[in-house]
């Protein structure tokens, strides 16, 4: 049985017993890197994480396993208040999959290391740059007490990298812009303005990002939700 006292080696051994070739094949169809995958779903990994609890030292060891599930479990069980910039950078060097990036981005936001966003955005590596915009997207949703101005300060970064045509970057830039726009009526105005500007761009990627964001930010569903939020304040 696994539990809070389980070591990294014991957890890896347990994960190995759950290997599913069928699930590995299915993951590949969703663009998940499966070279080291065991085929364990994220909900199942999250259940394991709840059982074994947070343990930062163990998370560092799990990351070193190089196994997809080991690294996801590391991200689920790392202690945000113990995550250093050095570790965050070191882990980013290993990023090779959008799902690892998006999970790590949530941890990085919870750890309040948003200072890495400009650094990651300027990095030419696709998955490191994606991390920056996944962090912005996550911060717009999860940092509810943060002033709107903090999120709006990311709009110039979005504008700068809206012409990156790589699939996992452009989708994250779009995601960040939409999430900022859905945060509040105040954010909506500025985000929609940028979205319209990008939609009129001569650059194909920027135009796609802008048009998609305009489509969502002007939808009845989003506008109604923003009106309800404003009424509750």
> So what's the overall shape?
globular
What level of helicity do the residues show? 55-70%
Query: What's the mean pLDDT score?
Result: 96
The N- and C-terminal alpha carbons lie at a distance of: 48 Å
Largest sheet: none
Count of β-strands = 0
Beta percentage is under 5%
| Cα-atom radius of gyration | 19 Å
Helix/strand structural class:
mainly alpha
Count of separate DSSP helical elements: 15
The unreliable regions are none
**H-E string:** HHHHHHHHHHHHHHH
Task: Describe it.
With 233 residues, the chain is mostly helical. 69% of the residues lie in helices and 0% in strands. It has helices at 8-17, 21-28, 42-52, 56-64, 68-77, 85-92, 98-110, 116-122, 126-142, 148-152, 155-160, 167-181, 185-199, 204-217, 220-232. α8 packs antiparallel against α9 (126-142) and α9 (126-142) runs parallel beside α12 (167-181). The mean pLDDT is 96.
Secondary structure layout:
Blueprint: H1 8-17, H2 21-28, H3 42-52, H4 56-64, H5 68-77, H6 85-92, H7 98-110, H8 116-122, H9 126-142, H10 148-152, H11 155-160, H12 167-181, H13 185-199, H14 204-217, H15 220-232
Helix pairs in contact: 1-4, 3-5, 4-5, 5-7, 7-9, 8-9, 9-12, 12-13, 12-14, 13-14
Quick structural gist:
With 233 residues, the chain is mainly α. The chain has helices at 8-17, 21-28, 42-52, 56-64, 68-77, 85-92, 98-110, 116-122, 126-142, 148-152, 155-160, 167-181, 185-199, 204-217, 220-232.
Descriptors for this entry?
single chain; 233 residues; mainly alpha; 69% helix
């Amino acid at each position: 049985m696994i539990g809070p006292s389980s070591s990294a080696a014991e957890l890896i051994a347990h994960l190995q017993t759950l290997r599913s070739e069928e699930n590995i094949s299915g993951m590949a169809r969703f663009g998940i890197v499966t070279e080291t995958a065991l085929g364990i779903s994220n909900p199942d990994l999250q259940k394991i994480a709840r059982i074994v609890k947070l343990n930062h030292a163990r998370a560092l060891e799990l990351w070193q396993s190089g196994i997809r599930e080991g690294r996801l479990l590391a991200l689920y069980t790392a202690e945000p208040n113990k995550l250093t910039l050095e570790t965050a950078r070191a882990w980013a060097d290993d990023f090779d999959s959008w799902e690892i990036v998006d999970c790590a981005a949530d941890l990085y936001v919870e750890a309040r290391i948003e200072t890495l966003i400009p650094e990651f955005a300027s990095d030419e590596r696709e998955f490191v740059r994606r991390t920056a915009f996944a962090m912005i997207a996550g911060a717009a949703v999860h940092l509810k007490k943060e002033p709107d101005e903090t999120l709006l300060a990311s709009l110039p970064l979005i504008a700068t990298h809206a012409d990156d045509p790589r699939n996992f970057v452009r989708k994250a830039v779009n995601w960040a812009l939409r999430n900022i726009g859905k945060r509040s009526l105040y954010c909506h105005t500025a985000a929609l303005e940028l979205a319209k500007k990008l939609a009129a761009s001569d650059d194909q990627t920027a135009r796609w990002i802008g048009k998609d964001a305009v489509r969502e930010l002007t939808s009845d569903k989003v506008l109604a939700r923003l009106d309800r939020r404003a009424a509750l304040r």
